[in-house]
Amino acid sequence: MARRRARWRAELRALVVGASGQVGGALARQLAARGSTAVGTHHGAPAPGTVPLDVSDHAAVAARVAVADVVFFTAAFSHVDGCEDDPARAFAVNRDAPAAAAALAARRHAPFVLYSTEYVFDGAAGPYAEDDPVHPLSVYGRSKLEGERAVLDAHPDALVLRTTVVYGVERQGKNFVYQVLRRVRAGEPIRVPSDQRSSPTYVEDLAAASLALVDKRQSGVLNVTGPEVMDRHAFTREICRAFGLDARRVEPVATASLGQQAPRPLAAGLRIDRLTALGVVMRAPADGLAAMRAAMEARRG
Hints:
Layout lengths: L1 H9 L2 E5 L4 H12 L3 E6 L7 E3 L5 H8 L4 E4 L6 H6 L1 H21 L4 E6 L21 H16 L4 E5 L2 E2 L8 H10 L4 E4 L3 E2 L2 E2 H13 L4 E4 L6 E2 H11 L7 E4 L19 H5 L7 H16 L1
Parallel strand pairs: 1-2, 1-4, 2-3, 4-5, 5-6, 6-11, 7-10, 8-13
Antiparallel strand pairs: 9-12
């Protein structure tokens, strides 16, 4: 069994839908490092080695899935407030596109991995386990929840990974850590909610966990996040410590004072007991941020 599994890994042909994004980029890097053949796709933001793909073009998606041994579907419409303005796009990208791809993968008996979110919960009583009752507050959360269900209906052996507050090195520099670094280094005041609790997740750990879980033939819904639950203000201060920045201009505020269009789950975060039982290790923010800083410095040479 060990030999067959090792051979299967080496010969793996992977499709990473959304490889120009943060999670997809980390997956593509790690697949290449382990010797797997990976095709990565992009839509609005090309990256070296990726090919264009509109996930709403199901024929084009079918052509890519048809030659893949495993599919990682990381593409999403993840702008939470933007989903409120364009629910049709949210459901097309977050539900219909992955469901169509999952159905195609199921016909080929190919593993399929979808990335979801803690926003399927209302944030009233987190951190949440996989089987806790779901109750999304926003269009984004509803579209992702319906995406989970549609994928598992189309491909009962699919793997749905719920994650949140993903950070790490990324080409576009859009994640929360980059936002904090830009503002603090520019000497700008930054208001961060102290009542919004979550589970910061280092992207390299998320990618490594994804590959390990496919190797272990896992299916269903599984939480994959960092092991600590903290509020955004505490995480921001951790970012400043990791990068040697002055956090005095970071102001803790209530989420309600930010005037965001979509409601956010407040007492959220995800429990990773099942993940830990599978032997998968995720780094806490202090260690993940230190690794991110080291990777950024290595890239600068």
